[in-house]
């Protein structure tokens, strides 16, 4: 085993003194290094240097002697690499920190470098490793901000996508924009605030610990400095796994189980039908990817809290206590939209949220939403709370837009909410070890 300097944790010589550059190179050439060793050896150098092919990176390339960074997987760690990105079919973690970025560069090469640097960082962040070195140089800012030092990965996932604006004329990529990726049309009742809309790039950070999710976005934003800036962020939560060890369907802030009608994420055929793009859907760089719709929705909580239980249940078309469709017994019973009472009146109101969203049952989407609470609206004294609605689908128009058009016109729920933010993103296919985020598009 390598000896380590006790105060810095860096690889050391037999006397415990830090290694000089030659010794570092020898160590690299002689032995396979763990990712952590490699990052430590780079000392105070930035992540960029690692990627630049110089120094340690250059040696690695020259001798081809060092394996890929090791990414471990245990109960708290969700693999970052794979055929699809994590954070889509992954059972929802307790928290989200969602971030939309705008690019400040006009050079495609910078964008590519950013994606490469983010890939390296994301592989560390999702395994609970610190970014870069061990913060040992007192004369430089630490390469990792430090707030997750000693924490486990908390099932952190980072999901990356690009918005329609990514394909404008800045980078010469307009011919690569999928026709399925376009800004959403205006919907009846929209009350969108530009401060929660759009973005060239999105990063969805989810984790069972909010500090872990926050740390991921904070450090990705640091790495992006000079190339991209944060445009908007939104944090969100669900009941935690500790509060609900059985992992029942989470309830939204209106008190109803939310997610019951989702397709089965363990059914591969269904996911291929509903979520994943294939080569017949559009450009090959999106094959294995998916489209994300994000809507920041504010609830009129105070109005909702004054409405009767029967009104609330008619609004969703489901019972509040167990989430079953009105007239049915169990949460996962089918929605029978044809059932009528003795007077011929539909048991489930046709303008209820579930009835309208379900339609004829042929169009589905995968919802992965989080509750949000952003303090008080000081103008009204009311809670600024609601839902960060997120859905993944193969086709935004045929799925999200088709359903949202029905909802926006007649949903009973509209009385109790308003959409304040909106964005769509093409989420890349999975990242292969040795590759980088968006490689098929940018490579
Ligand atoms: C355009 C898509 C949808 C938006 C926007 C949306 C907003 C929204 N939904 C809830 C709460 C619930 N939604 C439920 C079901 C449901 N919602 C959508 C789509 C959108 N919802 C679909 C496709 C479905 C499933 C319909 C089906 O086939 O059964 C439910 C019922 C329980 C469940 O199935 O999850 C609730 C509750 C809120 C609060 C909201 C506000 C932004
Ligand atoms: Fe819904």
UniProtKB/TrEMBL annotation:
Enzymatic class: oxidoreductase
EC number(s) given by UniProt: 1.11.1.-
Sequence intervals crossing the membrane: 41-62
Localization: Cell envelope
Annotated Dyp-type peroxidase C-terminal domain residues: 249-430
Signal peptide positions on this chain: none
Single GO molecular function: peroxidase activity
SUPFAM superfamilies reported for this sequence: Dimeric alpha+beta barrel
Pfam families: Dyp_perox_C, Dyp_perox_N
Segments forming domain Dyp-type peroxidase N-terminal: 85-238
Cofactor detail note: Binds 1 heme b (iron(II)-protoporphyrin IX) group non-covalently per subunit.
Domain of life: Bacteria
Keyword set, alphabetical order: Heme, Iron, Lyase, Membrane, Metal-binding, Oxidoreductase, Peroxidase, Signal, Transmembrane, Transmembrane helix
Ranges where the record places region Disordered: 240-267
InterPro entries: Dimeric_a/b-barrel (IPR011008), Dyp_perox_C (IPR048328), Dyp_perox_N (IPR048327), Dyp_peroxidase (IPR006314), EfeB/EfeN (IPR006313), TAT_signal (IPR006311)
Stored PROSITE patterns: DYP_PEROXIDASE, TAT
Similarity comment text for this entry: Belongs to the DyP-type peroxidase family.
Function statement: Involved in the recovery of exogenous heme iron. Extracts iron from heme while preserving the protoporphyrin ring intact.
Protein name in the entry: Deferrochelatase
Organism: Paenibacillus pseudetheri
Annotated gene: efeN
